[in-house]
Amino acid sequence: MLEILLVWFYITVSFLLNGLLIQKILDRLFKDIAFRNNTHILIKPILIGMVGVSLYAEFFSLFAGVNLLANLILILETLLLAIILRKDLRDLFSLLRSRVGFAELALACVSICILALISAGTTNLGDAYEYHMQAIRWNIEYGMVPGEAQVISRLGFNSSIHLLNALFGLEFMAGIPIHGVTGYYLLLLCLSSLDLLWHVFFGAEGRKLSFSSFFAFACLSYVFLGTAWISSPITDIPCMSMVFLVILYWMQLLERDENRPYPYILLCMLALYASTIKFSSVIIFLLSLYPIYLLIKSGKIRQILYSAGVCIFIYLPFLIRNVVLTGWLLYPFQYLDFFSPDWKLSKEVLEFETFLVTDYGRNPLRLEYEVSWLQAWIPSLSLLKKIIIVCVLVFLLLELGLLVLKIKEKLVRGRWLFFEAVMFIGLAFWFITAPDVRFGWPYLLFFLSFVPVNLGHYLRNKPDRFLRFMFRFSVLSGLGVLSLISLFYIYRSAKLVMDGIPANLVTETNYDESYRILGKGEGSTVKVGNTDFYITLWPGYTHFPSADKDDFIMRGESLRDGFRADDKD
Questions:
Q1: What average pLDDT score do residues 499-506 get?
Q2: CA nearest to 76, candidates 65, 87, 64, 84
Q3: pLDDT of residue 39
Q4: Are 183 and 229 in contact (CB under 8 A)?
Q5: 544 vs 515, residue with greater confidence
Q6: Which of 49, 273, 330, 408 is 20 to 30 A off residue 476, Cα-Cα?
Q7: What strands, in cross-sheet order, belong to the sheet with 524-528?
Q8: pLDDT of the residue at 454
Q9: Where on the phi/psi map is residue 466: left (φ > 0), alpha (ψ -120 to 50), or beta?
Q10: Of all residues in the chain, what percent are helix, strand and coil, respectively (each to 5)?
Q11: CA nearest 166: which of 137, 190, 125, 187?
């Protein structure tokens, strides 16, 4: 735990200082103080800095391994920013002291320690051993290598989170990377939700029925759910945490009747960044249509160009890495075929990977079915997940009926309708493509929290006794389902905490120890060029370089030169 806390302190300082710098640049660029308000005053610059530091790691990986030198440059730059931005830091912490009381601070500290203790536990997710650890190792050793996905095709699933795992793993100090990044993303979601709920219950404004407070409760449900995997260097938790935060902050802006486009633009940048962690989350970027509309409406074409430029800058290293790793612009999307390097993966490989992603989401238990994949998908769900799916379907029907009533009474608000439409598109996209529940949580929990509050707002002032009863029932039903989810996963989180005492109070259970505990097999060895490759489906971190096949050859004498397919057949 102590090891994780030290890494989190390093991450926080670097994110915060870089976030303050980027925030000042964007404020001047758009001539608007966009992200400064009285809520989440510390979390938001950290999120902005997260994007900046991630871009730094991605660009650095284009030229060298993300290890000691990358950290030295980041540390020197952070120290320099601490000197330059010392007045901003004083103002920030002065505002923080005046706003955060002792009780809220104590709650935050307890949450941090609990999540750090769980993060220090055993890495227990199969995908981490299958390719995430190898991706981190390649980024540490070489940054990126042409045709890296020829070795293990799943290495083509490029993710910016692998670069942060390489950067903040501190492999040069620990000997093997510290897995603290995943837990840090979940921590930010936890603290943001707690901060909002604390001020709803104990703030000066008092308790109120708001969309964002209900969704903050849903975010905490996901925090409890995600604790089972935060010790693994996976992409799901960071990506979903970012999507949750974008939705949460967007709801707060709508509740404040925010009319300026700039706060929305910043959230769209965070949404775009989330898709560099896991491309399937790109649907949330549809929200960018709203600030574009605001800018066009106000005639600020220059700001549209600025926004487009920033978005291109955020996405450029991600696209470059895709091409270098696989030969394709967006892997495994085969229809954007612009390049033909000698290391390019075949269309057959892309089709197979697309099939695997879709098929696993629809049929994880590999059940036989005759008519529809729903015959296999439904039995694969746990009882709790079936309850959640049924409740979401019921709430969607209720929301549709409520929408009809609001249209008749001319109560529909365009901004909220657009926001809800994007959430529905996200839910539909998840369900149609790969309905693994772990990828659909933001949209499922959104409708579980949004619809009861929406019904409540509509019914609360109705004079009819039955409608007042329906108001209470709608709110309590939403709270009931979210509480059921939370209680189930709180129990599991408590067990993880107890398992970590005293084993992980100081240090973490590293990749090698986790590998030994889980008893993963080592496989065999094959020589490719002058290098021995481990041929195994579960390479982990230490077995480097590893491959899941032997139908590739080296493009040069060293691993840095990359790989291409063996065309001898």
A1: 81
A2: 84
A3: 46
A4: no
A5: 544
A6: 408
A7: 524-528, 531-535, 546-547
A8: 86
A9: alpha
A10: 70, 5, 30
A11: 137
Concatenated DSSP letters for 369-381? -SS-THHHHHHHS
Whose structure tokens read 């041929």? 535
CA angle 377, 278, 51 (to 5 degrees): 150
pTM (2 d.p.)? 0.93
| CA distance linking residue 567 with residue 548, whole number of Å | 17
What 8-state DSSP symbol labels residue 530?
Answer: T
Count how many residues are written for the chain. Answer: 569
Closest C-alpha to 216, from 240, 238, 198: 198
306 burial (CB, 10 Å; 0-12 / 13-18 / 19+) is middle
The single-letter DSSP state of residue 536 is -
Question: d(Cα 34, Cα 30) in Å, to the nearest integer?
Answer: 8
Residue with tokens 């902050």: 249
- For 235, residues 6+ apart whose C-beta sits below 8 A from its C-beta are 132, 157, 159, 161, 162, 277, 278
On whether the CB atoms of residues 476 and 484 are closer than 8 A, the answer is: no
What DSSP character marks residue 255?
H
Q: Determine how β-strand 552-554 pairs with β-strand 563-565.
A: antiparallel
The DSSP result for 290-339, as a single string, is: HHHHHHHHTT-HHHHHHHHHHHHHHHHHHHHHHHHHHSSSBTTBTT----
pLDDT at 111: 92
The reply to whether omega before 502 is within 30° of 0 (cis) is yes
Residue 533 near residue 550 (C-beta atoms within 8 A):
yes
Q: Residue 16 in contact with residue 37, Cβ under 8 Å? A: no
CB 510 within 8 A of CB 244: no
- Angstrom distance (rounded) from CA 476 to CA 482: 10
The SS3 assignment for 563 reads: strand
> Which amino acid makes up residue 343?
W
* Highest-scoring range by mean pLDDT, 199-208, 388-397, 448-457: 388-397
Confidence at residue 467, expressed as pLDDT on a 0 to 100 scale: 66
